[in-house]
Amino acid sequence: MTDIYTPEREHRMISGQTSTQGLIARLERRDRISSAERMALEHALDAPVLHRAGELILRAGVRTSDCHLLVSGLAARIKGFQSGARSITQLSIAGDFLDLHSLVMKQVDHGVLALTDCITAAAPHRLMTNLIETQPHLGQLFMLELAIDGAIQREWFHRLGRQDALGRMAHLLCELDARIAMAGLGYEDGFSLTMTQEDFADCLGLSSVHVNRTLAELRARDLATWRGGRVEIHDRAGLVAAAGFDPAYLRPDAAPI
Fold it and tell me: Who's near 177: CB < 8 A, 6+ residues apart?
């Protein structure tokens, strides 16, 4: 069950932070955002809502009239089978729209699960449409967000079929490291990542046992360590090499639209 977010809740937003802070930080890595665009984006969002870890934020097959921005926390897009088996097809971090494509698709074809306590803010489709019409530069940046979203999906699919377990794990950590840094989060030597081995398995198409062995190999090679909800990167260049990681598909550098 969701709760309207209030300052009294134990899960608090950082003092002075707005709902769009993570999104704006990433967009500004690519192009300049005006004060008018910032204000228009903030005004399009409803009050923040808290979702507890393990809660479905969005259910597959539901028609929605809102786009949902992840303000804080870690969420996963999931696809399931009648047998109960599931796949995680993408991880969402603060500043990501969970369903920007619903603006045109309407019906969501996947679920979104809160892996940690998450805060979201909904933007009604009618306000998003008006925002795109009155702030066309933001509309172009939203199109870029959708393009990058698709690029992430292609990268995951490609590696799932052609890369060994160590390479896939290294790539997932490199991708998250880059995306979290672009949102103005993370640390110099790593980032927070509250997941279970089962979550890793569902991302990478591995068994939990294989995930455990792969994480142990990363430690043994002194590339990275995952423990206590945090990833520590010991050798970033080595991790990038093990992953064959090229961040170009994430559009990390400034390239004005």
Answer: 186, 190, 191, 231, 233, 236
